[in-house]
Prior knowledge:
mainly alpha, two-stranded antiparallel sheet, 8 helices, 2 strands, flat
Amino acid sequence: MYLGRAVTRSQHTAEQLFDRISASEAAAALPTLYPESLSGTLERLDALRHEKAALEAVQHGIAKSEGPRLEHRGKAIRKRDLVGAIGEVARDIAAVEQALEAHDRRCRSTLRALASVLGPEWEAGWLAQLRLLHYAEHVEANLVDLQSAMLNTLAMVTAKRKTNEAEAQRVLANASALFTGMAEIAKDAPGIQAGPVALALMGRESWAAMVGEFEFGYPTRENINEWLRVSDSWVRPMARALGSLRRAALDQLLDTEARVAGVALS
Length: 266
C-alpha cells in the first residue's frame, strides 16, 4: 500500500495530513479503511507511471516505438502529439494520486481519533511518529532535488568546450545550495528523536549517530572542481541514511496504527 510512494509530501506540516473526527466516526470507518479495491488503484498508478516513462523515452529519442507508427491507448499518434499524450497520462496519474492522498487522510484521521481515545500519551506518540515520517520524506526529497539541480546545471555548463565566469557562478550557486541543505540536516540531527522502534530497525542508537560528523568543506570558486569531484561521496551516505529513516519511520507509524486498531476492534 505504501511502498514506492510518498505518504506525507502533499502537505507542509504533519498536522495538515489529518482531520479531527470524533471517536464514533473513527470506529465506524475502521473496518473498511483498507478495501480490496486499493490494490487495483495502486496497480493502475504503477501502470500509468510506466506508460508516462515509455512515452517520454520516445519523446527524448531514448527509445523507439514498436512498429512503423506511434500508438497510444489504441490510437495512432504523430510524434508532435507526444506532448499531449504525456499530458493526458500525467493528468490521470494526478487523479489517482489525489484519490490515494484522500485515502491516506482518512487513515491518519481515523487512527489519530482512536489513539486519542486510548490516552494522551498514545496520541502524542502517534503524532511524533507522523512528524518523523514527514521530516524524513521531505528532507530526503529536498536533498535529491538539490543534487539533481546541481548536476543538471553542471551538465549544461560543461557541454561546451569553454566555461565563462557567469556559468561557473551558476554551478557554484547550486553547489552552495546543496552544501547548505546537507549542513542543515547535520545541524538538526541531534534534535531529531527517531523513536525506539525506528532506531532498532536502523540498528543505530540515535539519528545523529547515523548522520555522523559533517566535515565537508564549503564550495568556493577556488575549490569547486575538487568539491564537485568528491561531493557525491558525501551526498550518497546522507541520502541513504534519510531513506533508511523514512522506511523505519513508516514501519514504526504503521505498527503503532495496527496496535491502536487492534485495541479498538477488540
